[in-house]
Structures are given as C-alpha cells and as structure tokens.
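User: Can you write out an input/output pair for a complex, sequences first and structure second?

Assistant: Here is one pair. Inputs:
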Amino acid sequence: MPTAEFPNLFPALPEIFLLVAAMALLMFGVFRKDDEAGPARVRCSRIVARLCILALLCALILVVTMNGSDRVTTFNGMFVVDRFAVYFKVLILISSALSILIAQDYLEVHRVARFEFPVLVVLASVGMMLMVSANDLMALYLGLEMQSLSLYIIASFQRDDQRSVEAGLKYFVLSALASGMLLYGSSLIYGFTGTTSFDAMAGALAAAPGEAVSLGALIGIVFILAGLAFKISAVPFHMWTPDVYEGAPTPVTAFFAVAPKLAAIALLLRVMMEPFGALTVQWQQVIVFISVASMALGAYAAIGQSNIKRLMAYSSIGHVGYALIGLAVGNEAGVRGVLIYMAIYLFMNIGAFTCILSMRRRGQMVVGINDLAGVSKSNPMLALALAIFMFSLAGIPPLAGFFGKLYIFLAAVQAGYFTLAIIGVLTSVVGAFYYIRIVKVMYFDEAEEVLDRRMDRPTALVMAATGILIAIFFIIPDPLLSQAQAAAQSLFGG
Amino acid sequence: MAELWATLIWPVLWTAIKIVIIVGPLMLAIAYLTFVERKVIAAMHLRKGPNVVGPFGLLQPMADGLKLLLKETVVPSRANRSVFVIAPMITFILALVAWAVIPFGEGLVLANINVGILYLFAISSLGVYGIVMAGWASNSKYAFLGGLRSAAQMVSYEVSMGFVIITVLLCVGSLNLSDIVLAQKGSWGLFNWYVFPLLPMAVIFFVSTLAETNRHPFDLPEAEAELVSGYNVEYSSMTFALFFLGEYGNMILMSAMTSVLFLGGWLPPFDVVPLNWIPGPIWFALKIAACLFVFLWVRATLPRYRYDQLMRLGWKVFLPISLVAVVVVSGFLVASGMAPGAR
Amino acid sequence: MIFQALAFYLFALVAVGSAVMVISSRNPVHAVLFLILTFFNAAALFILMGAEFLGMILVIVYVGAVAVMFLFVVMMLDINFAELRQGFLRYLPIGAVVGLVLLAELLVVLGGWTFAPDASASVQSPAPGLEQVTNTRALGLLIYTHYLFLFQGAGIILLIAMIGAIVLTLRRREGARRQDIAAQVARRPADSVEVRKVPSGRGV
C-alpha cells in the first residue's frame, strides 16, 4: 500500500502562488459590483489587470530565487525544476505580464474590458509553467490542456465579433485533434515502455537501443511530435495559425505568438532530449523535415499577405522553423541556440505587436499593411520602432534577431548540417523581402489618410523598452548567453 | 444435472423468489401510498377523502388501478411511438431495480454490493430519462416543457445530493449501505443516527429528494396550472399508470434512502428490551412511513416554487452549503481523529 | 463462470450494437439514446471486471449528467440529419481508404509489437491487490497521494472551463427582475400596508 507522504511543495511554489493569486483575483472580480460595459466594470478590470501583473512579477521573483542550480523533482517525479525550466518560466512570465500590460487599452476601446481576461492569461501561464516543468506524460498533457483551454477562451474573448468567435472555435477544434494525436502517441509509448515518467522512459528506451525499439514506439513518438508541432504551429500542422491570428483580438494574438510557443518549444526540447534522447537518429529526420517546411512556407506564404496580423502568423511559422534547426542538431550548442532564439523572438514579437496595436485611424483598429503608408511623417517614433522590429525579424545585423539566427546556424554548421544552415539563410533572405516591404511602405509611400498619433502609455513604454533591448543587444549579450548556456547544460545532465 | 441445479438454476430461482418477496409488498405499498396521500391531505384540508369504495375507502386504489388497466392506450398522432411507450417503462423499472441494494435488516438485502450508495445514486439520477423521453416523444409543447424542466431540475439537485452523501460517507468510511446503517449503531441510541450530527445535511438531502422526485413544492415538471400536467399530459391508461407507480415508487425509495443515510435504517431508537424485540424491517418500514408523511405534509402545506427560485435554491444555496459542509466535516473528522480508517 | 461469460457477451453485444446504432440512426434523439445505452453497457462491463466504482461513476457522471445535457440540447435543436448526411456517400470512398490505411498501420504496429526489455519492471503497480482492499479505497489511496498533482491539475482545468463558459455566454439582461430574498424577508407589514379609515359613500 502506498504511504501517504506529503509531497515537497517548494519547487512548485511559483505555480502554486500564481494559482492562488488567480483564484483570489477571480473572487475579487466576481464580488465587486459591476455593470455591463459600464465604468465600474472597466475600473475593476483595470485593478485586476494591475494585480495580475504584480502577481506575475512576484512569481518571477519566486522562480528566480527558489531554484538552486540543481535538478529537483517532486510530486513523485512528475514535476521537475532545473535551470532549463527556470529559463523558460522567466520568459513565459515576462511575456504574459507584457501581454496583459498592452492589452488593457485595446480591451477598453473595444468594450470588452472584463476582469476575466488577465486572470485567464495568468491561468494560461500556469499551464505553460507546468508544461515546462512536466516530467511525466500525464503532467505534460495536463499542462498543455490547462494552457489551451485558457487560450480558446481568450481567443474568442470578443464574443460579439464573429471573427473572434470563429478564431476561438477553429483553434479549439484543431487543437483538440492535436491533443488526440498526442494522447494516441503517449499511449503507444506507454505500451512499449510501461511507464509515463520521463526518467523511467529514458531508461527503458536507452536499454533498448536502435533496432530493438519496436515500430509501435516509433509511431508513438511521431504522433507526440505531431501533437506538439501543432502547438508550435510548425508545417504541416500550421493551417490554423493565420486564421486564428487574424481573428483573435490583437493583444491576444500577441500573447499567442509568444508565450504558448515558448512553452511548447520548451516541452518539445525536453521531450525529445530527455526521454527520447536515445532515439535521436529516429526522430531527427522528422524534425529536419518540419523545420525546412516551416521555414519555406513562412518565407513564401507571407509574401502575398496584405493583413499585418496574417503576415505575423506566417512570420511566426517561419521563426519556429529556424528554432527547430537547433533541435534537429540535437546537441548542447543547438539547444543553446534555440534558447537564445526564443528569448529574442519574445521581445521582437511583443514589440512588433505593440506597433500593430498602435495602428488606429479615427479610433478604429486597422490591420492592413497599406494603412501604414506615411507613418514616418505622422508618427516617426512608431515608424522607427516598427522598422527596428522588422529589421530584427528579418535578421539584419546588428539587431538582436541576427544574433538569434547566428547561434542557430553556427550550431548547425559546427555539427555538420550544412544543408539545413544554407536553407535557413536562403529562406531568411526571402523573408527579409516582406519585412523590409513594410519599412518601405512606412517610409516611402504616400498616405491618403494618416494614422492617429494617439498611443496609450503602457503600450508606448513596452514598445520603447523592447525596441531598445533589440537595438542594443549586441553591446551586452552576455547575461542572456550565459543563462542560455547554463540552461542548455542542465538539459543534458551537465 | 444435480450440479447444474445447484450451481445455476437454484441460485437464479432463489434470487427470483427474493425479488418477488421484495417487489410484492412494494407494489402494495405504492398502491396504498396513493390512498394514504389522499386521506392525509384530506385530513389537513378538513375533508373526508376517499370513503366510498370498501370500508373507509380502502379498496379505492384497487378500483383506480382496475380503471387504468381497462382503458385504451392513446398514442398521439406523430408521436415517436417506440420512445413514447418505452419512457414510462423506464420510469417504473428504475423505481423497482433500486430496491436491490436496500438493506431491510441485518443481512436482509438482495445484493450487498460494495458501492451500494453509488448504485442508488446512479439509479436515481437515471430517473430523469423516463420523463425527458416522455416529454419529447409526446409531440406536445406542454409535455416537452415539462420534460425540459424536469431534466434541469433533477440534474441541479443531484449535485448537492451527491455532496450530502459524501459527508455521510466521510463519517462511515464505506459505500456499503449495511455498513452505513451499522455505523449509526451505538450506545447513544437514536442520537447516534446521522440526522443529529449532520442535521443541516439531512435537511438539504430531504429537500433535494423532494426535487428529485418532482414532488411539491418542486413539481414544476407537472405544474398543472401552467403545463396542464407536464410530461405525462398525453399519457393514458397503463402507460400513465406506470408513470404514476414510478413516481410513488421513487418517493418510497427516496424515503428509504433517507432512512438508511440519516435515520439508522433498521436500527431501533434505543437498544433496550421492548424496542429491540420488534424486528428490524418493521422499524425500517416505520421510518420510511414517517418520511413519506413529511412528503405528504409538505404537499398539503407549501405553495409551488417559481422556476428561477428553484434553480436559485439548488445552485446558490444548497450547493455552496453542502460544499462547505464537506470541507467542515472532513476537517473536523481529521482534526478530532474520528475519521474512519485513521489508524 | 458460465453465467459471467453469458453476461459478458450480452453486454458486449448490446454495447457494440447500440454503438453502431448511434452513428446509423436517422433521428438524432435516437442516436443520443443509443449512446446512453452504450454507456450503460460499458458500465456493466466495468462491473463485470470487478471495477464497480468506475462502473457506477460512469453511470452517474456520463449517463446521469453529461448525456442528459446532451439529450437536452439535441432535443432543443432541430437538427436535420438527412441534410447533414448528404455528402456521406460521396465522401465514403475517401473515408474508407483512410480507415483502411489506419487499420493496416495498426496491424503492422501490433504485429511487430515488442516491449522494452524492462517494461514489465517499470510498470508502476502502486495499487494494492483487490483482495486486500475494495477498489474504491484503492483508487482513493492512489488519487489523493501518488497522483495528487494530476488530480489538482485536473481541478484547475475544470475551473478554467467553468470560467470560459461564464465569460463567453453570460449576459446581463436589461430589465430582468431578480429576486432579492433579503429584501423580501426584511419587509414588514408597516412598509407595505397602509390602514385607512374610509368614510362610507366617499371612497379613498
């Protein structure tokens, strides 16, 4: 009979804190008297949003301070905290906090400022943190569902807007399908190894190297990969991305483009490296294919887009492709490249979305690329910031985006994957075309009607901060590099 | 052949005999419950009630039954025939099968299964199907509305009922109905029955059973004033009789459940000489009768709830209270070391 | 023994038969009713295997609550299934091909199935045997200790689902009158009844 030993809660303290805070804020919001779309409700949502940001920051401090450099597991080995997890949790918390910060104004303008939004973002971040810390197939699935369920809701948060509802529904149906594939793969893996724990799985698979691994287990891995590839919107599981990005409210799209991707990439890295590390040869070809396909599609499909949100969707598909090169390489340098890439990707994307959020004409949001014409004259700061982000996304030195790609390609070249690196460089050249086209529209096209100058303060602050970070990364890259190095090492048991 | 007899035929036959022993008196009880209901309500209204057929009107239920049996079954045009006929059968069968796990005395139970209380709960939660199917199949607005109301109402009250059952289970440490009764045995006599330590839960449970059986003041699925007779408006003759029997069977069943959970089942109030000479099944029947009386009393006294009030009571009052009670009871049991299995 | 075998075949047959009816019956309400029958037989199969707790919970949760809501919705919506089925024959060949491919894959996988060498050792068997405890207790001992993390996580997921349902559907109607129990109870005769002497022949 199992002994009822109380689990050690300290490694999970940030998650527990966030959950308690989210529930407390939920109660706060529910018990405050509010009226439909009235000023009291807006005020309430503002307070809750601020408190949510505060909670996320507290959790951030907890994450950073609570961890030693050791690998700690708890809850019977289902939950693991190591440098790798800490690295991603920090990024996730930052992106969640920034998303809430830039969302408030948009929600108020569109009369959907409700206190549930920041709470749902916090709950989604908890799900992502659980994903990052998952050390068991069941824990993985729970974290994934916790995240996805919150995302479905906030995707259709503008519930009177058909496109928003459509986005939520589309995401829900396809995501459920992906979850099904993931579960099917998990059950095959469980059938082969007899365990759901990553540690035990790694042992079982290492003991049966190469040809002794049955076909069923391999198919299981492929299914798990497919499920996770959906979550990071890699080709061929990307179909939902443009529609969802376009339909969802813009701050939600900003959140979608960053935090869930971080978590899913982290999960993918951990699952492929830890339990399936012994089977690198088998899954590598799949990753290589996904990576190349994503880069190519991201580069070519974005060219014809006229909606900037759809363009960002294809851009994110392409960026996932670049990040996956690092995974395909499958060694410590590759993982380090992915870690650096994702951190930079976070700031570039959040920054780009602050610019998109600021595109308004007579108080209405506009999302056409042509609407940006003449911004350089009407709103030079916005134009400058967007130009920085676009150049960085394209990977033009000396901006941060260049270094992200650099480390990935370096890792690929060092490990001898020249083809991958070459395809990567070629597609980034193609990609540079449409990023720079935006800059061209802003600076050289004449506008029939200019955008508003108004910009709310939090968004402007975030825009400035991310812009400066991206621009001066090359001066002080060291903190990020060393942290990424340590995190990558911890994944390889170093 | 002898072996086959001993291993297969006799057990089946014996079970069948036991079923007859349970169902026979039960049917009689249902029949006379209708009679008692009319008499009790009549007394409360200062009327006489049925008094023509037989001495004191005692043959009235027989006459009613005979009348229903001899009438023609009318199936409305464009009704969904098979579902229409199956619905009353479901209601009636469910009201009977639940009795398989009710303990009438120590060891006097047809199937002494481990999860008896869950079985009862499951069967009572299925009761909604008969009504919903009837409402849908009748092809009538009133019947349909009655069916929908019933579905929402029964599902709502099941939730708090479940939590109340959990508080009892926390005190007992078993899901077996005989164990639940035996756990209420003690030197304090009737003060050991759970109705005293868990009084608020007992009240909530009883009110929920009123809603679960669609009885007054929660008889909105029938609500003769608005829905003429709700889900069974299109039913006649035997099909109607089955609904009727099912409803009263459910009342008795719920009373039995209340007795087992809160009133000490077959236990006498005090384990002293004249009282414990009376056999357990008699005590059990008396307790059921007492609960049934309250059912009738409530019907004679209280006006019907409005539908939103009904939902409010279920979700905003009973659910939070029973939820808190689960926490409080389990906390108390753990803190005081009285939790079963805390060795 | 023979009794159990008979019971198994009965329940299994009815389960499979009603499952087929779920997808082939023309009337959506009938389909849901057959689905319920399938659940019911699955519960019976659980009980036959000695998992009585799971069987009962299946009936309580799926048949008693989820399927009721499902039935509720299907009855209210006027779904024309004949219309939904229009493309059925047209897509049948493609569907059949996909199904066959999947079946073939499954057969290949299962045919060449091997277990990892230490799979049997790594199978966690924290559940005590059924001869020691009832399976309700065994489940409780596992869920609340070994799988505490997953249990709580599932709880959070359900909370999120609940928030979602409320956020996406709840609307305050203008002019809806809500009951205020406290106000009703606090009302006194003096607040609402005025006693007047009415002079006869003149009215109020």
